[in-house]
Design brief:
By secondary structure, this protein is α+β, with helices and mostly antiparallel strands. The chain is built from 14 helices and eleven strands. The radius of gyration is 25 Å and the shape is globular. The C terminus is likely disordered. This is Acyl-CoA dehydrogenase/oxidase C-terminal domain-containing protein.
Length: 472
């Protein structure tokens, strides 16, 4: 939220942007981006109300000089907040509000000296009990005569705060991968030391097969997450692409990231997809990690002795990832809105160009897994794009989750195959095959015999594998 607020304020500190409050935004931006712990600020994001929930159109907070109220807020120990409120003449607008304001203090000489502060018309009623993320306080609060500064044009609040949402949704995906990765690390460590019927768990093929499936999903999530992070970087700092190319290795990955305008279009459509899919995958993945440890993983203890196996806390924290910053259905609806909106044809054309540019480099993979991956991804993409172009918004919204999941699969498939081509690593190719073929009738793990599949399971989970010719 702090990163998102900083990005939003940075758009209103440019000299080209007329604003009487620019100095306020500049000062806040300096605090929000500071690495000095004494100077640094955190920011909250206040959008959710008891009545409206995720539908901000039902916001009841009014931007007037009269008492107003906001019922629920996250990060209530922050220094600033970005919030939505209705303006009487223009609809929902975005505002920047400091949490504290200066109170003039009368000295004995009668002079006013601003040496004290008070809460900026904010009353915190109670902290909310939550399943997880307890270190991040969520509270019920009300605002009365709160001093706030308009961000952008009145009535454009949702558009303004979308800058914050894009950033927080990407942070959400990174957090999902982090929690999931920690759970997988605990699962791997446990398999190395837990003995069952005279064998370590890591020597039990069925157990390792389940773990391998989760590691394939995790790799796909990681690659897509940091691809979208790269898109965010290029869209905010176009010159970063030139820096990549200047310092690129012999096989740079940067050609996967398009330049400015196209990067912005991909970022817009893939951010809700990424947020939704990584959240759901991490929740399901951590449940598998808990199960892989058996009963000990169900213990939720803060004892230092148990911290190494406390997947239960990771699981509790992960469950909020599919809820805040937009539920899965909200993300699916947002995805369809982008694909069928006024810039929808341009977005689909950009996606098509990106997919075909990658596939064109696979055409040299004339035998083995390469051509199979090419055919599977090409056919799947062609059908998906045709469905998007041919169906109405109402039809697509009804199966929005499926549409969103399919787009995520295509993007992850491209990234996994590109990763395998670049590294020429056998394990990377096996991961790419398994991801691609899960949408087809082929069973990659048994393609060369079940025993060989067991060996690949070991390599995927515990590492290993040898360099191979990428053009299989």
């Amino acid at each position: 939220m702090t990163d998102g607020a900083a990005r939003l304020l940075s758009r209103h500190t440019s000299k080209e942007v007329p604003s009487p409050d620019r100095k306020v935004f500049e000062a806040a931006y300096e605090h929000l981006t500071s690495r000095d712990p004494v100077k640094a600020w955190a920011s909250g994001q206040w959008m959710t109300e008891r009545v409206g929930g995720s539908d901000v159109r039902n916001t009841e907070t009014l931007a007037t000089y009269l008492p107003i109220s906001k019922s629920e807020a996250v990060v209530t120990d922050a220094n600033t907040a970005v919030l939505l409120a209705k303006t009487l003449d223009a609809g929902i607008s975005a505002f920047y509000a400091p949490l504290r304001r200066t109170v003039p203090h009368k000295t004995e000489a009668g002079d006013s000296s601003p040496i004290t502060t008070e809460l900026n018309g904010i009353t915190i009623h109670r902290l909310k009990p939550k399943l997880g993320t307890r270190p991040v306080p969520t509270a019920e609060l009300s605002l009365t005569n709160t001093r706030a500064y308009l961000l952008g044009t009145p009535g454009q609040g949702v558009k303004e705060i979308s800058t914050v949402l894009n950033t927080t949704r990407i942070h959400n995906a990174v957090t999902a991968c982090g929690l999931w990765g920690r759970g997988l690390a605990i699962s791997r460590a446990f398999a190395r030391v837990r003995s069952v019927r005279g064998k370590m768990l890591m020597e039990v093929p069925a157990h390792v097969r389940t773990m391998a499936k989760e590691h394939v999903e995790y790799r796909a999530a990681m690659l897509m997450t940091y691809f979208v992070v790269a898109l965010l970087g290029v869209s905010e700092q176009p010159q970063s692409k030139a820096l990549w190319n200047r310092h690129a290795s012999a096989s740079p990955a940067s050609p996967l990231v398009p330049d400015g305008p196209e990067a912005g279009l991909l970022l817009r459509v893939l951010t809700p997809v990424l947020k939704a899919l990584t959240a759901k995958s991490a929740i399901a993945g951590l449940a598998e990690c808990m199960e892989s440890l058996g009963g000990v993983s169900y213990l939720d203890s803060s004892s230092p002795l148990d911290i190494g196996t406390n997947i239960a806390r990771l699981y509790r924290d992960a469950n909020v990832l599919s809820i805040w910053e937009g539920t899965t259905d909200v993300m699916a609806d947002d995805t369809i809105r982008v694909l069928k909106g006024k810039s929808g044809s341009e977005v689909i054309a950009t996606l098509e160009k990106w997919v075909h540019a990658a596939l064109s480099t696979w055409e040299d993979l004339r035998k083995g897994v390469g051509v199979d991956c090419y055919i599977a991804v090409f056919e799947f993409w062609r059908k998906w794009a045709a469905d998007i172009k041919g169906e109405t918004s109402e039809e697509l919204v009804l199966r929005g989750r499926e549409t969103m999941e399919d787009l995520g699969w295509v993007v992850s498939a491209v990234l996994l195959v590109e990763d395998a081509i670049r590294d020429g690593d056998g394990v990377a190719w096996e991961v790419a095959k398994r991801w691609v073929f899960k949408k087809s009738d082929m069973r990659a793990a048994e393609a060369a015999g079940w025993a060989n599949g067991v060996e690949w399971d070991q390599g995927i989970v515990f590492g290993g594998g040898t360099k191979v010719n990428a053009k299989l």
